[in-house]
Amino acid sequence: MELDMEKVGQTLIIRYKGEIDMSVSGNIKDAIDREMDKERTKNLIINFKHVEFIDSSGLGMLLGRYKFVTIRSGKVAVTGANEVVHRLLDLSGLYSLMKPYKNERLALRALGEEVLA
């Protein structure tokens, strides 16, 4: 599992490479929850730039992370989705919960984080 995490202010940025399916969804969920608890972050940005596909367990994991974040009064944003992932997020209704942004910088600004030049 290749998962990169970066904290910017009160926001955790997640970058995963590969497919988000049943074989990795639980591990990704645990890693995100653990890191958000450890770093005491409230917002989450998920960068899908290197994600080729998401199955139903991956969509469920994303919905669960949305609930986890909103309990903390935070927000979830997404960036970098390819055409396939974008379509899945749109058809599943997740875009009504997690607003898509063109890049991490715009997502950070929308979440109220100060972004350096």
From TrEMBL:
Where does the STAS domain lie? 1-111
Annotated GO molecular function terms are: anti-sigma factor antagonist activity
- Name the InterPro entries for this protein: Anti-sigma_ant, STAS_dom, STAS_dom_sf
Q: Name one Pfam family in it.
A: STAS
Q: Which residues form the signal peptide?
A: none
- CDD domains from the entry? STAS_anti-anti-sigma_factors (cd07043)
Query: So what family is this one in?
Result: Belongs to the anti-sigma-factor antagonist family.
- What is the name attached to this protein's record? Anti-sigma factor antagonist
